[in-house]
Amino acid sequence: MRKAHFVSLGCAKNLVDSESAAGLLGSSGWAISAFPEDADAVIINTCAFTREAREESNEEIKALSKKISPDAKFIICGCLAQKEKEKLFEQFPRADAVAGSADYRHICSILQKLSASGAKRRGRVLCVGKADFISGFSVPRLISTPRSYAYIKIAEGCSNHCSYCAIPSLRGEFRSRTENDILREAAALAEMGIRELILIANDSAFYLK
Question: pLDDT tens-digit profile of 69-109?
Fold first, then answer.
């Protein structure tokens, strides 16, 4: 069975995206590995909200590049990918794919394209689209937090466009999930035995507005 390893940096919203990507891979027959060294694919979900966050993302990418198998597929996704796009291929030659902050939903097709190019490739995939997607109940999700709690993303992005904030350019315009979709996910998580549900968004006060 093919194995994938995830590293999620930054905020809880990024973690939910990583859990959704892991759930999509799990539904496609992949197992999740706790170790990058024995994984067939390594996915790092980066943060780029502050200079310190960008530096942490860069350092973690460098560290992973040295750990992973030469044949493993290495995918950089998240906010740093949304910001830098193809520049990351120049900065990190080991990268096989770059996927934007909302493009984790394409993780299965990205890996299929990389596999089709062969193990001795360096065929690369750039998948950075408009950040306008928000994961819902229909997207499988592999919870990685302790079983006592889990996050529920109720909205994504921000439309305020403050001059000092990068969120709109990194995460897109504000969009909300429906109440029914959120309640369905909450019920499913409660059935799993999760006792505390933490609602998150870039601007939770703007929900449904």
Answer: 999 999 999 999 999 999 999 999 999 999 999 999 999 99
Question: Looking at the 3D structure of the chain, how many domains does it have?
Answer: 2
Q: What is the CATH number of the domain that holds 157?
A: 3.30.750.210
Global confidence as pTM? 0.94
Residue 114 lies in a domain: yes
**Are 167 and 88 in a shared domain?**
no
> Is residue 141 in some structural domain?
no
Beta carbons of 192 and 4 less than 8 angstroms apart: no
Helix, strand, coil share (%) of the chain residues, nearest 5: 40, 20, 40
For residues 113-149, one letter each, b for 16 or more C-beta atoms within 10 angstroms of the residue's C-beta and e for the rest, the string is: bbeeeeeeeeeebebbeebebbbebebbbbbeeeeee
